[in-house]
């Protein structure tokens, strides 16, 4: 794949992730309460975040070796 196209794809992907995170935080803050993450939130979030990090790390190292 062309390097510049891949870079643009990754940048837009991170942009969408950032916008989605900001939207969720904005929705949670509409009640005026502070945002707290409990045990259940971590049980849901960790299995989602870890594969994303591992996949990005694998792609980064695979491209350099």
Describe the structure.
The protein has 65 residues and is an all-alpha fold. The protein folds into 2 domains: 1-34; 36-65. 82% of the residues lie in helices and 0% in strands. The chain has helices at 3-29, 39-64. The two termini are 16 Å apart. The mean pLDDT is 82.
Shape from CA axes?
flat
Q: Tell me what portion of residues adopts beta-strand conformation.
A: under 5%
How would you state the average pLDDT, rounded?
82
- Report the span from N to C terminus: 16 Å
Number of helices: 2
Helix content: over 70%
Quickly count the domains.
Answer: 2
| Series of H and E elements | HH
Sketch the major β-sheet: none
Pairing-aware structural class of the strands and helices?
Answer: mainly alpha
Low-confidence stretches: none
Q: Total number of β-strand segments?
A: 0
Q: Could you tell me the radius of gyration in angstroms?
A: 16 Å
List keywords for this structure.
flat; 65 residues; 2 domains; single chain; mainly alpha
Helix-strand layout with pairing:
Layout: H1 3-29, H2 39-64
Short description:
The chain is mostly helical and 65 residues long. It is built from two helices and no strands.
């Amino acid at each position: 794949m062309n390097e510049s196209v891949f870079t643009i794809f990754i940048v837009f992907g991170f942009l969408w992730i950032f916008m989605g995170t900001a939207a969720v935080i904005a929705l949670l803050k509409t009640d005026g309460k502070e945002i707290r993450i409990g045990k259940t939130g971590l049980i849901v979030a960790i299995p989602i975040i870890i594969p994303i990090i591992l996949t990005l790390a694998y792609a980064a190292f695979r491209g350099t070796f």
